[in-house]
């Protein structure tokens, strides 16, 4: 029963959070993981990872700042790359 209650509450909280229009198309921040960005911009996480040449499984909860650092990029440059990938995915 505890597990059911936990997942029910978690689902309701996520539903309420993502129903708020303020959480759509949020400005990219260094702390955001790729999945959060994909959800905010309403694109598939795996497609976004592929567009950025990232392994979908290896970068599940890694913040954008760390992904940029792993590529040897500044966050701002990587953020522009992410935004371009999102625009490309949305245009399809």
What does this structure look like?
The mean pLDDT is 87. With 92 residues, the chain is mostly helical. It has helices at 2-19, 34-40, 45-51, 64-70, 75-91.
Low-confidence stretches: none
The helix fraction, in percent, is 55-70%
Oligomerization: single chain
How far apart lie the N and C ends?
A: 43 Å
* Proportion of beta-strand residues: under 5%
Described by the principal axes of the CA atoms, the overall outline is globular
* Number of DSSP strand runs: 0
Radius of gyration: 15 Å
| Number of self-contained structural domains | 1
SSE sequence, one letter per element? HHHHH
SSE topology sketch:
Elements: H1 2-19, H2 34-40, H3 45-51, H4 64-70, H5 75-91
Helix pairs in contact: 4-5
How would you describe this structure in keywords?
single chain, 92 residues, mainly alpha, globular
């Amino acid at each position: 029963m505890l597990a059911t209650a936990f997942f029910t509450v978690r689902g309701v909280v996520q539903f309420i959070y993502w129903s708020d229009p303020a959480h759509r198309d949020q400005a990219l921040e260094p702390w955001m993981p790729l999945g959060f960005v994909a959800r905010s911009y309403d694109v598939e996480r795996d497609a976004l990872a592929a567009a950025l040449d990232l392994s979908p499984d290896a970068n599940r909860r890694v913040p954008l700042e760390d992904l940029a650092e792993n590529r040897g990029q500044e966050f701002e440059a990587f953020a522009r790359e992410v935004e371009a990938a999102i625009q490309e995915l949305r245009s399809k």
